[in-house]
Design a protein that fits this description.
With 438 residues, the chain is α/β, with parallel strands linked by helices. It is 39% helix and 12% strand. The protein folds into 2 domains: 209 residues, NAD(P)-binding Rossmann-like Domain (Rossmann fold), CATH 3.40.50.720; 193 residues, Rossmann fold (3-Layer(aba) Sandwich), CATH 3.40.50.720. It contains 15 helices and 13 strands. The strands form 2 sheets. Strands 3-2-1-4-5-6-7-8 form an 8-stranded mixed sheet, sandwiched between helices. The longest helix has 31 residues.
């Protein structure tokens, strides 16, 4: 191991290193708290001054991260800043920035590129940079490596570059940052050594792979696996519905097989910052090699069509009661992309809401985790969450369950709603006429 490699690895292992985390959101903030908790000094860098000011005042806007945890981190030396020149003080830079799709559903690496461009004037020798954002295989080599080398560094000797995909699962009580195994790939063997040293104190299990491309592909496979299986079960739901079969009962029965089957449940579509987006990163990159990823694209088409299917079922249910969608009062329960979180990114619930609005429905929503409809780039509703009680529920022509938060009182909802359209199988074994599956 080269002297520089050994020096940086030792500095990381002894916790003398300063960790810079760029992007203080759903990925960066939990990482900060973990490294801070085990004794590292952390500098958090973010372009949002309001968010930085909020963090420095000891406040959090992410529901599952408490104000107390931020306040404690500040006492232990954490500070947030918008000043990218502070990167020069850091021994490690962890990049946790968004990688969305553009309007053509192609990879948008603008956040990654602009972040790296803002950092490279301030990087120095004996530093490691780790990209954690989900992206297509080759991004680290094609976008980060040339920019670092342009500064005069030799990656693998006096600068170190790794890719280690984030695996956060907000709202999952069974896992936390520390307990989720960390995949790490380095540009060179020396980069990998430093990457392992960077993560091994903070994460219980570090899984090393042979290259950054392998690590990048690993994250895509994880999410494509889920996307394809969810697409399969959503398609099965449509077929089962036509046959008069309850797909939730079918899945529950199939799940009793102790081998060879993993239960996936249908819903109103895909949401979150990973599964609706990541498959298209590989689809786009595959075209460079003359390949057409038909299987991946087909599952994407099925999942993207689910909100339209759900609204069709709402319309049918209203028609059965002699009502049209236009003018009917519709209450959507849950606009977060999954249960028990406040994250609405790519939430299919919001597309369901837009389709209802477009068809003339009089729309409201209730979500105990999202008190006011947030500012979003592509969606707008001037709405706040409705507090549920018997009278409120009874005033709507239809109540649509799109996210099955544990905070909802589903017994009260069942008792008082005139009509329920259930997309999550909450009432999978209920036989009441007013409950419709979608």
């Amino acid at each position: 191991m080269a002297v520089t490699t050994q020096q940086l690895s030792n500095k990381l292992k002894s916790k003398e290193a300063v960790i810079g985390i760029v992007g203080m959101g759903y990925v960066g903030l939990p990482l900060m708290l973990r490294y801070n908790d085990i004794g590292f000094k952390i500098i958090g860098i973010d372009i949002d001054k309001n968010w930085v000011d909020l963090l420095n005042s000891g406040k959090s806007k992410i529901e599952h991260i408490s104000n107390d945890s931020i306040s404690n981190a500040l006492k232990n030396g954490f500070e947030a800043t918008t000043d990218f020149s502070r990167a020069s003080e850091c021994d490690a830079l962890l990049l946790c920035v968004p990688t969305p799709l553009n309007k053509y559903r192609e990879p948008d690496l603008s956040y990654v590129v602009s972040t790296v461009n803002s950092l490279v004037p301030h990087i120095r020798k004996n530093q490691v940079m780790s990209l954690e954002s989900t992206t297509y295989p080759g991004t680290t080599e094609e976008e980060l490596l040339p920019r670092i080398e342009k500064q005069g560094f030799t990656v693998g000797k006096d600068y170190f570059l790794v890719y280690s995909p984030e695996r956060e699962d907000p709202g999952n009580p069974n896992f936390e940052t520390r307990t989720i195994p960390k995949v790490v790939g380095g540009h060179t063997p020396a980069c990998l050594e430093v990457g392992i040293a960077l993560y091994q104190l903070a994460i219980d299990k570090v899984v090393s792979v042979s290259s950054t491309k392998v690590a990048e592909m690993t994250k895509l496979l994880e999410n494509i696996y889920r996307s394809v299986n969810i697409g399969l079960i959503n398609e099965m739901k449509i077929v089962a519905d036509k046959m008069g079969v309850d797909i939730f009962e079918v899945v529950d029965a199939a799940a009793t097989k102790p081998f060879g089957f993993t239960a996936y449940y249908p819903g109103p579509g895909l949401g979150g910052h990973c599964i609706p987006i990541d498959p298209f990163y590989l689809t786009w990159k595959a075209r460079e090699y003359g390949l057409h990823t038909r299987f991946i694209e087909l599952s994407g088409e099925v999942n993207q069509a689910m909100p339209e299917y759900v609204v069709g079922k709402i319309t049918d249910a209203l028609n059965e009661q002699g009502k049209a969608m236009r003018g009917s009062k519709v209450l959507v329960l849950g606009i977060a992309y999954k249960k028990n979180v406040d994250d609405v990114r790519e939430s299919p619930s919001i597309e369901v809401m837009e389709l209802i609005r477009d068809r003339g429905g009089v729309l409201d929503y209730s979500d105990p985790h999202v008190p006011t409809f947030p500012k979003m780039r592509e969606h707008f509703f001037d709405l706040s969450s409705i507090k549920l009680n018997a009278a409120v529920l009874g005033s709507y022509d239809a109540v649509v369950i799109t996210t099955n938060h544990d905070k909802f009182d589903f017994e009260m909802i069942k008792k008082n709603a005139q009509l329920i359209i259930d997309t999550r199988g909450v009432y999978r074994y209920e036989a009441e006429q007013k409950i419709k599956r979608a």
